[in-house]
Design brief:
The complex is a heterodimer of chains A (114) and B (245). Chain A is mainly alpha-helical and 114 residues long. Chain A has helices at residues 4-22, 26-48, 70-101, 106-113. With 245 residues, chain B is mainly alpha-helical. The chains are: A mainly alpha (114), B mainly alpha (245).
Chain lengths: 114, 245
């Protein structure tokens, strides 16, 4: 079962990609993109995990305690911030588009513009 | 590309792409058994060098501080982008809509939760480099406390608590403050963003040298950018309330 976290990450990525490809609503599409990006958090944190290790926060534990990798946790933090700002920009583009075209369906917008 | 051809292309190429991705993932070290040379080094070094007990915060604000600088400016640019995009299509607000929660129970519970949430946010940010937390997490919770004021209280109370000039100023101070701490190191002759002050006492607020300053700069920046993002979306919503009436 040692590859389960990586399999979960791969599954999240493709289930999100499927949602993006088949989406009929830009808000739904943004959420699917966020699901895709969540797979990267799972990969990073799964790489950082060590067997029988604790959080890398040295409060009430020995300085030599076995801890999980703090670097990938910091990278995950960056990843989440980027994911949030991408979602914010996409959602505001959706709002802007709804104001002009009165639709949030990617295919209908394409018909209107052509 | 039409919807049908798009799905057709996906069906044809996704299995190949999936095979490559899962092949790559299967090549990663066994779960829980990777050696972590860099992570192990930081876990040992941060409590000794920086007297910081939260190594994730030490990584974010010190060892990878330059990375976080970029991250702060991604957030800054995105908040500005959303403001530009949405303000452009919105007329100047003339009057504030009257939009309040009518249910007493929701209102009472929500208003009680506001100080709790704000306190939690401040605590997460203040002790971010000692116990689990950090400037980013604290900033998000702080902004959440303000949103609660609108969600459970009233729009006017939310707007009164987050005047846009103040929020914009805070965003500038947060992003600029991070750069100032970096430049201060440069002025003193050290490399950019080098940790400046003594490590202080382990496990207290006076530990970590420059880390507390960068931590608070990030907390202010994140809280302000989030409030600014919410503001723009709420303004759009408020506009729809006005036009409906």
């Amino acid at each position: 079962m040692s590859y389960l976290p990586f399999a979960v990450a791969g599954w999240l990525f493709f289930v999100g990609l499927y949602g993006v490809v088949t989406s009929r609503n830009y808000i739904h599409l943004t959420v699917c993109l966020t699901v895709m990006q969540s797979s990267t958090y799972v990969v990073l944190l799964a790489i950082g995990y060590r067997d029988k290790a604790t959080a890398p926060i040295f409060v009430g534990i020995s300085r030599t305690a076995r801890t999980v990798d703090p670097v990938v946790q910091a990278l995950t933090l960056t990843d989440i911030v980027v994911s949030v700002v991408v979602a914010a920009l996409l959602l505001s583009l959706t709002m802007d588009m709804f104001g002009r075209a009165k639709t949030v369906d990617p295919d209908e917008v394409r018909e209107l513009s052509s | 590309m039409s919807r049908r051809s798009r799905i057709g292309l996906f069906a044809a190429t996704a299995p190949i792409f999936a095979a490559l991705v899962f092949w790559g993932l299967a090549g990663l070290p066994d779960f829980g058994h990777y050696n972590h040379p860099y992570g192990k080094l930081l876990s040992r070094a941060a409590p000794v060098d920086r007297h910081t007990s939260n190594v994730v915060s030490a990584t974010t604000f010190d060892y990878r501080g330059f990375d976080t600088l970029g991250e702060e400016f991604i957030l800054f640019a995105s908040a500005m982008g959303v403001a530009l995009l949405l303000r452009d299509v919105r007329d100047v607000e003339s009057r504030r809509p009257y939009d309040r929660v009518e249910d007493d129970a929701v209102q009472l519970l929500g208003i009680l939760m506001v100080p709790v949430t704000v306190l939690l946010g401040l605590w997460l940010a203040a002790y971010g480099y000692i116990t689990p937390g950090g400037g980013f997490q604290g900033g998000v919770v702080l902004a959440g406390g303000l949103v609660l004021l609108w969600a459970a209280g009233r729009y006017r109370a939310y707007r009164a608590a987050s005047p846009i000039p103040l929020v914009e100023l805070a965003e500038g101070v947060g992003a600029g403050g991070y750069v100032v701490v970096g430049l201060a190191a440069l002025v003193s002759g050290a490399p950019f963003l080098q940790n400046l002050f003594g490590p202080g006492h382990f496990g207290t607020l006076l530990s970590g040298g420059s880390i507390p300053f960068l931590n608070w700069a990030a907390a202010i920046e994140v809280a302000a950018a989030n409030v600014l993002l919410y503001n723009e979306v709420f303004e759009e919503y408020a506009l729809s309330l006005r036009s409906r009436r």
